[in-house]
Each structure stands twice: as structure tokens, then as C-alpha cells.
Amino acid sequence: MPAYGFFDNLDVVDAAKLAEYKERVAPIVARFGGRYVVVGGRVDVMEGQWSPVYPVMIEFPTFEDLHAWYASEEYRELKALRLSAARGNAVFFGT
Fold first, then answer.
1. How far lies 41's CA from each of 15, 20, 44, 56, in Å?
2. Which CATH number does the domain housing residue 56 bear?
3. pLDDT tens for residues 5-61?
4. Please, are residues 93 and 46 in contact by the beta-carbon 8 Å criterion?
5. In terms of residue numbers, what domain contains 82?
6. How far apart are CA 80 and CA 45, in angstroms?
7. Into how many domains does the chain fold?
8. Which of 27, 31, 41, 42 is the most exposed place for a label (fewest CB within 10 A)?
């Protein structure tokens, strides 16, 4: 069953670092079988008070693949770069 990593960038503190992250991350996501489903765009909140700012959703073949990507050596440096560039939330969905 597919699994999804959902990231919401709430506040960019270093645009240059975030741009570097965006340039380098896609090949690593692909290596773990991931594909981008949502990158920014319109959000209509239909219920509740949630206010996403810049949502990104990545689909992986399995929950294990998603966790393997997030914990991988290949992603470690980029994860640190992203965390230093923006404040946000991350949630994983899967079965």
C-alpha cells in the first residue's frame, strides 16, 4: 500500500538554502521509489481550522520505503539543510 510524506513549510528563514534543497532532493526521493504528488498550490480547507502554507506531499510505494528515505544517509544532509532553511511540519501517512 502506498505511503505519503506530507510537509508543510510554514516559514522560510533562508530562501537560498531552501532553493538548494529543492534542486537536490528529487533524485534522492526517486531513488527510494518516491514521487511528488503535491508541491504548493491552492488549498481549500473544508472543515476545521487547519491553515497549510506551502504543502508538499510525496508518495512512496510503502511505509517502509518512506521511512527508509527519511532516515537514509543520502537524505541526511539535505534534511539538515531543509530544517535550517524553513520552519514547518511533517507527517507520514500509511498502512
1. 18, 20, 10, 9
2. 3.30.70.100
3. 999 999 999 999 999 999 999 999 999 999 999 999 999 999 999 888 999 999 999
4. no
5. 3-45+52-93
6. 30
7. 1
8. 42
